[in-house]
Design goal:
With 112 residues, this protein is mainly α. It contains five helices and no strands. The longest helix has 28 residues. The two termini are 25 Å apart.
């Protein structure tokens, strides 16, 4: 946790979004693994959803316009799929949530 805290404290706004996207993907993976083991993965679900809410809340609709609105839809859809995974106890929904977020994380990481 110390390394992660240091990384966050020193992060630029761009790097912070990268960290959040990476952490959301990690939590989605943890939830999927828990479901595959027959566990609910509540903690990972809560963390992933919280991160996705934070990312959505950070969007600048005035400057970002249509792009910000589209990003909000992506984050909402990922949360919906995680909720579906929890409701149906089905790890495939986690896989779909990951597939929703991963392209955004990859594209964001490529922006220098």
């Amino acid at each position: 946790h110390v390394e992660q805290s240091s990384r966050v404290a020193a992060a630029t706004p761009h790097a912070l979004v990268t960290i959040l996207l990476d952490e959301a993907l990690d939590q989605i993976d943890l939830m999927q693994a828990a479901l595959k083991r027959g566990q609910r993965g509540h903690e990972a679900h809560a963390r992933a959803a919280s991160i996705l809410y934070a990312l959505e809340a950070s969007l600048d609709y005035r400057s970002g316009g249509t792009t910000a609105s589209l990003m909000a839809q992506v984050y909402r859809e990922a949360r919906r799929r995680l909720r579906q995974a929890a409701d149906e106890f089905d790890p495939d929904w986690c896989k779909q949530a990951r597939a929703t977020v991963a392209p955004i994380a990859d594209a964001w990481a490529q922006i220098a």
